[in-house]
Design goal:
Beta-galactosidase, Chain A, domain 5, 8-stranded antiparallel β-sheet, Glycosyltransferase
Length: 731
């Protein structure tokens, strides 16, 4: 069957159609324009010289194409990765300079792969259900196909018919057949791996004039439209561009989407691929950028690494291509300036010129408060980003209530994270992985990724009976999603998102409302976290706040376990958490203050006599020291339907140089719930000598629906789902 597939592909390669090359990355005219622009365009020339320097080092040398042996970080893995990058860059240089030495370099390497690839079977270090042949996982083989296909397209006019045949049959067909036949179930997934696979097969199809490969890349191995590029565009994005695996994986998947779409736009403009689903690829790019920190780092929910920012090659490529196909977008310029490189393309030329002309361009990407829906139809929960402040003074709170997020999702319904002036305050652990480091299991996800990072306790949301949401079952979690009750992001004084989940735990409803309130008395917003639960029986409820910074003070007495520490629990992530201190609340309000960089942060909690408070640290049962030693503050209540009312206050300043501390104590002096039932929740918060009152209607409502409540003998009327009153005035 495998041999038959090869024959079929070869038939189409030779007989079906041919087009003028280069075309996949860019047509000849674009390369000629680059050559013309190089002398006067500094950033374009700088980007060109970086590539030229990296390639010239290898011109005339014998390039090793080793038998695959090592996982990520090992010699053979890194060498094959370097080879496809070298071939791609050398192919670009051939088209721009016309120097044959660059085409010869690509040809020489490709001919070596033409001998190697037919001999390969499953990689010896493969550990997943999608093993690669050149690399330990098929995903990396797909990367190889994308870049090698683009390189081949750039030098095809240099090759003889015999060389073309040898490369197509030996280097490409074994990989294409492996993906579309042996691994067709993987190839047909709706997942970022399959996006790369489709792009690789499609770009190779375009480069080798193979219509059969292009059709499979567009419509799946069965060519029925249930898989392939169009199905990926439909299934992985919500209508407003949210990528279901989260922004870290948007960054990764957006490159093959854009590279393949660009190749299709060059060869089959009648597909209008960049207009598909109301320009979904532009929405995806803009949405990913809105889910970054001030340093460009992607918010780290789901399996994400904190080190990835928008200066990566994936984002350089996407922004440059988007500028070319969607038109100028000044919002991209501050990012392009930080990236300090451009593609050798028409889009790269345009951005480089725009940076020269627009010296007074905006200083930062225009971040804003925004909500994203999740799911192909936009009906599977979502993510909201609430923001207050301007430019470097920005405070951002992320409220995640999305679907599971495929295999990279975590069990963290109704999770929040907080950033202030670029500093991570309440964090999401992200992934347990040292990507590209051979000593750490070949750069793969480590065991603790599932035993800790995926578990609910690793996040800032409620855990019931020390069990993760959906009992840690991806299959169950993927069936459900929370439902937004109401959202209001248009008022700078009060922003609020309220969401209900009824499936994370059987017979328990979780209802979280996050308010970001900007008071005139403060330059920083106040965060009010109202987390209601509803059940029929008593359970243990834990609400963790995974904070970053140095503990400063607590308003309650606690017992520290300095000489001997125990874990917080035995499973579901608890086995990885040390219990460093414990307290039982004795006052109606408990306050916990920590310092991050130069600012104080206080969590003020409404507590009852039975509330337990824990100081924790990650790192237990971690013999290989794979986990980062992060600290946490956990509030525990044992009740039938407890409500957690917490106020997160950003205040004061510490100047180490001047040894001066100002406003180091919180303004919150008291908290109470005046009413809390199925109809209304009324929270009253004393701040110094003034009162903040939040009134929330806990059922579905329209903005026009009128409500009336009685607060300590005073009748209050309002419309919609909420009203916020500060010092007797509605905000």
């Amino acid at each position: 069957m495998r041999r038959l597939g090869t024959i079929i592909l070869l038939f189409f390669t030779i007989h079906l159609f041919a087009q003028k090359h280069p075309i996949a990355y860019a047509p000849k005219s674009d390369f000629q324009l680059i050559q013309k622009e190089l002398p006067q365009n500094r950033l374009l020339r700088q980007s060109f010289n970086e590539i030229k320097t990296s390639v010239d080092e290898w011109v005339g040398k014998d390039i090793d194409v080793p038998i695959p042996k090592d996982p990520a970080g090992g010699y053979t893995h890194e060498k094959h990765k370097a080879n496809y990058q070298l071939m791609f860059n050398s192919g670009l240089l051939y088209q721009i300079t016309g120097e044959v030495k660059y085409a010869l370099l690509v040809k020489t390497i490709l001919l070596k792969y033409a001998k190697l690839n037919p001999t390969l079977v499953k990689h010896p270090e493969a550990t997943s259900t999608s093993p690669g042949r050149i690399f330990w996982q098929a995903l990396n083989d797909a990367n190889w196909l994308v870049y090698t296909g683009l390189a081949y397209d750039c030098i095809v006019d240099y090759l003889t018919p015999a060389e073309k045949k040898q490369i197509v049959e030996g280097a490409f067909n074994p990989e294409v057949n492996y993906f579309t036949h042996d691994m067709k179930d993987w190839f047909n997934l709706i997942h970022n791996h399959a996006v790369w696979a489709c792009a690789g097969v499609g770009i190779v199809g375009i480069a080798t004039d193979n219509k059969e490969a292009i059709q499979m890349a567009l419509y799946g191995s069965n060519k029925d439209g249930k898989a392939g590029l169009f199905a990926q565009l439909k299934g992985l994005f919500s209508p407003d561009g949210y990528y279901t695996e989260g922004p870290y994986y948007t960054r990764y998947a957006i490159l093959p989407f854009y590279l393949f779409a660009n190749a299709l736009n060059n060869t089959q403009p009648e597909l209008h691929i960049f207009s598909e689903r109301n320009s979904i690829l532009k929405k995806a790019l803009d949405g990913a950028l809105q889910q970054t920190n001030l340093n460009g780092g992607f918010y780290t929910y789901n399996d994400a690494l904190k080190d990835k920012t928008y200066i990566t090659s994936e984002m350089v490529s996407a922004i440059n291509i988007a500028w070319q196909v969607y038109g100028e977008n000044p919002a991209y310029l501050p990012i392009a300036k930080v990236q300090n490189k451009v593609l050798l393309s028409k889009g790269g030329i345009a951005i480089a010129n725009a940076l020269i002309k627009q010296k007074d361009a905006i200083a930062m990407f225009p971040y804003k408060s925004i909500s994203f829906t999740d799911g192909a139809k936009g009906d599977e929960g979502g993510v909201s980003v609430m923001r207050s402040g301007k430019e470097n003074q920005l405070t951002s709170l992320i409220f995640k209530y999305s679907s599971h997020g495929l295999s990279h999702g975590h069990f963290d319904k109704l999770n929040i994270n907080l950033f202030d002036e670029g500093n991570e305050i309440l964090q999401d652990y992200g992934a347990v992985r040292f990507i590209g480091i051979e000593q750490k299991w070949g750069g793969r996800y480590l065991t603790e990724n599932k035993t800790y990072a995926h578990q609910t306790i690793a996040h800032n949301t409620i855990v019931v009976d020390e069990k993760s949401h959906f009992n840690g079952s991806e299959e169950e979690s993927s069936k459900y999603h929370p439902n937004e009750l109401f959202t209001s992001l248009g008022n700078n004084k009060v922003q609020v998102v309220s969401v209900i989940d009824t499936n994370a735990y059987k017979d328990i409803q979780l209802h979280r409302s996050i308010y970001m309130i900007q008071l005139s008395e403060s330059s920083k917003p106040l965060i009010v976290d109202l987390f209601r639960t509803k059940g029929a029986e008593a359970h243990q409820y834990d609400l963790p706040y995974q904070y970053t910074g140095d503990f400063i003070a607590a308003s309650f007495k606690y017992k520290s376990f300095n000489n001997s520490q125990k874990t917080l629990g035995t499973k579901n992530g608890y086995q990885h958490i040390w219990k460093e201190a414990e307290a039982v609340s004795s006052t109606p309000i408990s306050q916990f203050t920590f310092l991050n960089h130069s600012r104080y942060y206080t969590i003020s909690s409404l507590t009852e006599d039975s509330t337990h408070l824990f100081f924790t640290r990650v790192g237990a049962n971690d013999p290989n020291f794979n986990l980062r030693r992060y600290a946490g503050f956990i509030i525990r209540k044992q009740a039938i339907s407890p409500t957690f009312l917490n106020v997160i206050e950003l205040h004061g300043n510490f100047n180490a140089n001047m040894e001066l501390s100002t406003n180091a104590y919180p303004s919150v002096k008291g908290m109470e719930l005046l009413q809390n039932d199925d109809d209304f929740s009324i929270a009253k918060i004393k701040m110094d000598n003034k009162f903040l009152v939040i009134i929330q209607y806990n059922k579905a409502s329209t903005p026009q629906t009128k409500h009336s409540v009685n607060i300590q003998g005073k009748s209050i009327e309002f419309q919609g789902n909420y009203t916020v009153i500060w010092d007797d005035k509605v905000l």
